[in-house]
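Issue: ligand-bound run for uracil - logging full I/O for the record.

Environment: standard queue, default settings, no custom constraints.

Inputs:
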Amino acid sequence: MRLDKYLAQSTGFSRKEVRRFMKAGEVIVNTQEVSDPALQIAHSDEVYLSGYPVEPPGDKYLMLNKPLGCVCSNDDSTHPTVLSLIDLPRADELTICGRLDVDTTGLVLLTSNGKWAHRVTSPRHKTGKLYQVVTADPIPESAIDKFSKGLMLINEKTRTKPAQLTITGQNKADVVLTEGRYHQVKRMFAAIGNKVEALHRVSIGSISLDEELEPGEFRYLTDEEINSI
Ligand code: URA
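Outputs:
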């Protein structure tokens, strides 16, 4: 997006006013003073007006590499929350799209767009979530059929939706779910007499966890990633 549009949409100043700020040397992109209103700005650029950071306009869409020991909730008295890892203004207003357990790691999507969040999480949209699983006991071939037919979980009235299980090692598998019931992967393995020892979410639909992100780091989604949901 052009710099003048970016600034006008984010701050509410008119494009004419924004250009005046540029002429006065009040606009910095990354570390450079900028006076070209047509300069293209990417999500990764840092824009400052009169010394204050200017957020990208419109809704926010982020991916986070969730570390162990951190919870996917807005508030917690014992653990840090994923929102505390997002050092952006109004991070506490973001919706966490599909929560992970405290001991699960990997891809978490966050957004300020409620409709988009619903598309990520609603089973009606059949967005596949891929998990890598390590189990306590070996995984038998028979589990593939059981996962694909659906399992009855304790205290649930309906079978789980078909899930794709790929055995990748004696105690390792990839699982794709299109719904997100409470502790679903762990409970599905418990239903076949096994125990999940480690769980990591790799992708949601065609959005894959960026390998460059260390645990605890986040980045903005690209337009392509946003539009893929
Ligand atoms: N299933 C689980 O059991 N835990 C998670 O965190 C995600 C899916």
